[in-house]
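Task card 7
Instruction: Convert sequence to structure tokens.
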Amino acid sequence: MTANKNMPVILALCLVVFAAYFRVKDCGFVNYDDYKYVIDNYNIQGGITIDSLMWALKTSYFSYWHPLTWVSHMADIELFGLNPCGPHVVSLIIHMGAAAALFLFLRYATGELWQSAFVAAAFAVHPINVESVAWISERKSVLCALWWFITASAYVHYVRGPAAGRYIIVMLCFMLALMSKPMAVTLPIVMLILDFWPLGRVTNKTKMMPLIIEKTPFFALSLLSGILTIYGQAKNDAVAGVNESSIAFRLASAALSYVTYLGKAVWPVNLCVFYPYKEISSVWPLALSLLALAALTAAAVWLRKSRPYVLAGWAWFVVTLIPVLQFVQVSAAPVADRYAYIPFVGLFITASWGVYDLFRKYRTIALVIGICVVIVMSFLTYKQTAYWHDTGTLFKHAIEVTENNYLAHNLYGTHLLSTGRTDEAIEEFKTALAVMPDYPGLNFNMWSALTIKGLKAEAEPYFEKSLPYWDKEGEMPVLKLGISFLKQRNYDVAGEFFLKALVIAPRNILIYKYIGMSLIGLKRYEDALSYIDKGIAAAPDIWELYFQKGLILKEMGQRDEAVSNFKEALRRAPNRGNIAEIISKNIETATERRRQP
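Output:
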């Protein structure tokens, strides 16, 4: 493998990726996991610190153990703050690196230049991979792929010169892949596939057991990662019980999913962020899917001697998809574009080497076909990237290309609600509720929209159906919405949200403070004072309540009592920031007004 031949290919890959993806720099955060991963995740807001690194190593927050991914988000905060341009560019650079690493791995493993280049180019610009690159929450996918291909190269290096040091390097790279995303659990099996092709370690005379034993530590790490993932999913109530969907349904859905992915590999149109489950109303789609999978598997096995790359590529695709086929159901979607990020490499390998073999005597034709395919995919990727510009664009597109997409209607509705288009939001929620009438989060959003419209009686039934939502979310969404309306000085609506927050979380005493603030805005001072006193009776050590009570009493003209409460707040307030200064200024102004004749 010579550097003078590889470098032009790597530079060309980077240019193609940049041309297809450069609009990603203008994309923002989307209201689909980005808030939990980055914007509202206080654990990473301070950037890289000892405490944040320890948190990353220990946490299964949001259902996964992937500390390297958390550290990458912390690094984004260090470098760019909450400006989404920076993280998007970083994800794009990592994707470029993954494409280059894939090319170098295949070039090193097979010795073939053009076939390796096409696989890397297809991986780089296939439009199904836009989700992994353009979605900040999917940083874990691009990181995992980068370390996956580096691990594969290190493994080839070890096989060609077995040594303890090289073996340890493979282990370390594999651990970094697992620490990026648990999708890497299948990598030890892919190593066995590589043993078959292109490394040629599996022959009629070779016994498989030594090769399997060789990878025992890798399987042990995969098992540990799998256990941590299932634990994290179960801890966050993300794993569905068997009674929610039967094993037979999951197997049938898996077969249909394989065929769906194959279709998207060949015809990547109408891609979107979320594909809902479809009811299996006929046995024919399932029967045809099983027949197609059996035929493709049989063909790959039949060609294993003359075209071993066919079986290797097919096995790569089948095996690496297994963790995301919802056998252990952790998603509301049977198929997702991001799940194809690494598995499609197997299909690209089969296609690249297959076309090259087919036109072996006419290599120019193979080259022209490859270039044309890459150009078309680059254009589709350029187009697909635009849909990730913002939440509204993303989910409006999902509605346009799918049917009965309750999640898309719900999240597009929340976008409309946040931009003041309440009537349109209600229509979106109605459409979604027609599909999923008992979905708690959706019922909460409908309650919010109707409450904002002032239709309290109509809203109440939706709130009752939203109560299971709070088992997972706590009171934070409703409290945050109340605070947002408080900032807008929409005190009446803010008060409704705070009162509901108190119903959900009666032990969160600070809610009394917010209720008091909304009532002050409405000049209902006696009512505000009543709620603040309830809060103080329940938790007499919270300084904010005394401060709030002082503000109310000052507005009521009761200066002596106001000063007394300000002083109590000052005594109990933490010694940080400008809290003491703010309280002292209020004591000063209340005292001055008290002295005025």
